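Posted in: Protein Modeling Q&A

I'm a second-year student putting together a small comparison for a lab meeting, and my supervisor asked me to include a predicted structure for GAF domain-containing protein. I've never done this before, so apologies if this is the wrong subforum. The sequence is pasted below exactly as I got it from our records. If anyone can share the structure token output, I'd also love a short note on what stands out.
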Amino acid sequence: MTALTREHQLLGTFVTLADCLVDDFDIVDVLQRLVDDCISLFDASAAGILLLSPSNRLEVIASTSERSELVELMQLRVGAGPCVEAATGGEVVSVDDIDQIAHRWPAFATDARASGFSSIHAIPLRLRDSTLGSLNLFRDEAGALNAADAAAAQALADIATISILQQRLVEESELAQAQLQRALDSRVVIEQAKGYLAQMRDIDMDEAFARIRSHARSTQTRIGVVARDVIDGRLSL
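Accepted answer (user: helix_wrangler)
Welcome! Here is the predicted structure, written out as tokens:
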């Protein structure tokens, strides 16, 4: 990708995300678009977002792949790792080589290698003193994310944070909690729709999610609405 083309794509991502920040925006759609764009914008093979729920638990809210390996890495099956560290500590955790963290997070390092990942860049979703989760970039090759990409990824993480906590939600904590809970509830419906579609069509979960996401984008419908229609039998994919 040429620098000019990449710059235009990055600007387009910012514009698209900014356009999503309206009164009735859907957090899941915004964050899904963000992680999808991260793959083409940066040297990453997978991306995902962890979000802190109202009950103070970290949950996967968006990912570029529904492969169990990626979801489980972020979903804390091993209990710790760079994604968790960024989400709970509020600082960027950049791992140039997975081998470097084998002594600190051995289970995470083992699982990451088994999934084909060699490095990771985890960015907290932080506003002032509040950390809401983390944006996580998984890479097949070892090495640091270059400075320009790291700065751009941080800017996108900031946009994601703003999309979750707009000023009116910051000022009214009950509304903020309700917004976060709605996003998590939408994710539950999406998971149910994936399983239903995978069983009905005899396809894997990744393909099931790809169909749901593709239909949502082509019809400009929220992912959660498409998922609900699949479950209720109103939509056949």
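A couple of things worth pointing out for your meeting: The mean pLDDT is 82. The longest helix spans residues 173-201.
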